[in-house]
Amino acid sequence: MSARADDIPVRRLPGPLLSCVLALLSMTPGVAFAQAGRPASAERVTRRFDFEEQNTNPTDLPRSWIRAQNDPPLRVRPGFPLWNRAQLDYTVSAAGAGSVRLPTRGGSASLLLDPGVVPVFPDADYVVTAKVRTDGVTHARARMVVRLLDADGKPLAASGVSSDPVETRGLWRDVLVHIPGNEPAAASLQIELLLEQPGPTGELPFEDLEVVPEDFTGAAWFDEIEVIQVPRVELWTRWPGNLVPSIDRPEVSLFLRDLVGRPLDVVFEAADLDGDIVDSRALVFDGGRLEQTWTPKLPVLGWYRVRVKVSQDGAPVGSAFTDLVWRSPGLGDTQGAGRPVDSFSLSFASAPTESLGALGDLALASGTSRVIAELWYGGEPADHARSAALVDLTNRLTPVNRELGIIVPGLPPEISNVRGARGLLAAITDGTHDGAKWLDPLLVDLGHRVRWWRLGALGEALDASLLPDLDAAVGRVRGLVPGAVLELPWSPFNQIAPGMVAPGLAVSQDLGPGVPPDEVGAVLGDFLSLADQAGSGGWDVPRHTSGFAAQDADRVGIGPSLDAMLRRAVNTWTTVGSDTRGRTLRLDDGWRWQGGRRAQFMPNPSAAAWLTLIEMLNNRQAEPLERVAPGVEGVLLSPRIGAPRGTSSIAVLWPAADSPEPDRVSLLVADGPVRLIDKFGNALAVEPGEIEPTAVRTHRMPWAGGLVYVDGVDPDLMRFAASVHAEPPLIETRTEPQSLDLVLSNPWPSAIHGRYFVVEPGGLSEGDVRSRDRAWDIKPRQGAFGIDPGETVRLPIEFEASAGVDAGTSPLVVDLDLTAPTVTGLMRIERRVEVGLKDITMNLSYRYSPDGRDIAVFAEITNTGPQTQVVHVYASATGYARQRSAPTPLTPGQQVVKAFSFEGGRAALAGQDIGVGLFIRETGARLRKRIVVDGG
Questions:
Q1: Nearest to residue 136, comparing CAs of 98, 183, 108, 168?
Q2: Residues 526, 511: contact at Cβ < 8 Å?
Q3: Which of 331, 610, 687, 753 is least buried, going by the fewest C-beta atoms within 10 A?
């Protein structure tokens, strides 16, 4: 078993700083290196190791470096055998001729810089960069470790930082380590280069029984190591969770310090969700210390990234950023006086102990009723400090009606080598089991403060094989934590076991990107059915938590990613219905913790959209709007029983699947003005207006795409509009008229009446009889109706289309002169109907001849009905004689392809359409379609 180097936390160099350092490496030598009269430690690049020592060093060991291998009693380091001898190599290099090579013949290799070689300022920030190459290794990895040393050459505690381990397969790669200047006693900087074999994985109960694979050949090379002094750049806001209410202007604070003493250019930039710069500011900094605030001019509410860039002589030397959400006043209250919003929670699985204090402020600012965090955090010891911080957090939340939930991802590695829920359930069930002595006191200590306990990490789902142990585990936890609610993670793709649905238990299902929005109801239906059977005692109901996270924006785009997440949440709320007791919607990964000197929770765009969603759903119940407008679907949110007085109704609208997205939505949704609200809370007032030259009223709502909210709608008017449709939604192209029913329902508590006018098809929607389309004969085009409360009427209308009407989708537009309790006047309803034949389908395609001159059009005809049909098919195009095919009988289910050739058609018909029709002589049925030839 191989031993690893000292346990050093991995700190990744922030992306902006990484790009700055890479740019800095390309600076001219006059800028990069010390000038006469200035110490090297005062320059930007304070030291370089290029290993070009062939003319000055007669040994194979680079000057000022030692081999840090196992050499008792001088150095006890098992796993670093003496035979792995690092040495200079003049046959492989990233630049010049020389590099240093760390070989392995089994075990690990190390090369360590002598103390005092690289002096540093105690409070300056440094970056160490190197080029690294590995070859011939499969298991071993190369990495670089940097430590701060005191004046005696002793390492300062917790100052070590490591690069990521790399395996490059013969290529040179850059590795970097950032050393923040937090140590007043720091006198010098020490670098260690490592080729390190893997250690135990911890998957087996006993480490000494684990066989760890090693390499016995291969090596790592390091070259071009540079120590760079970088400015200290910090950027932050004063609002918890960087949630800025709209009543305030977002203000960011900058701290900048640089000890090099050269002028620096400083640029502030604020970028929106799409990365576009919306405001900027520039200034010159002469060195030393700078504290500034900047209030960017943000155009609208939403998510923004504010960045500061620092450059010297045109080359970037430092940067920092902070993300913020500028939001409507909403539900958050940093003083804790506001009433929390039930049914909504936030998860913070990756929350180190240092972040728990800030988490309390964020919980209050978000307005949600529950936040959940892990009992122990990976990378930290599961000790008293963590549990004490959780106790402090509960003491902060409880007086203001907020709740802390605890995630128990499993047993920590220092307690047990058995990972996940299996070892956890064993420890809970059996008080003598491995881990029980650690877990029981925590349950007792936190149990009278925390009632919500999740068994299993976020993203984990319980294995069905663990369910037999569940009853015993639940009973034991409730014995230690009276009134506990146990959250049980379960896959949305597996059927829920009945025993998991009972009062006091909460089934948790992650409704992430893998669950299509339209499938949410099917996922929740299983739970709701079992919950009805389980029953409840007052508020002690079976509970369900739905977890949501936005999909990777790099794959689908940030807008579609947020829209899909919001649709899943809205559909969940709709499926839950009016009784939301015990139903929770949880946002995962809404914030990320940024440690360091200005540690802060930074919101992701999903947090901004989620907070707006909470405002829309709070105190409202959802019902689907079966029909809204062509290309648009939606849900109606109306005040639930007990909602505060003045709670408005809201329509949530989004593009319909498999339909062209409209550029506007035209529908009368209330008798007065409404507000069109985007997913970040920006509102646009929309007044009802008339469709000129008619007196028909409508709300013309611009559609920018994605999901929107319409606040202030008349709920009964929306229900009435959604009820209007034609049955069946198909107008058959036959010689005899086709009868359709215009269906209307009355959702108001009293009778309504009015008149209807069918203006499309027929060309009358513009109110001008001169535009009438006489290819349609509709009887009657107008009539009266009266509907009692809760009743539905069916108004029969006959449609007859001439032979020149093309098959496909046709608009059905009906104007209604309505007299109802909340609205009176003309309104317009737009629908789509299919024009064609019920039992015959025809699809068209074309292709060019091999020489590219001619066009062949193909008509694929299918008989979908129960009777044999004899079809006559013809094709026509401008400048060509009409072509006919022989009559063809089609039995039920049979398909035939008819081909028509147009000589020289590519040039003659470019940009024009070719018409193909069929008719059935025996029934008079006909079908006509067109296909447009590519204009290129």
A1: 168
A2: no
A3: 687
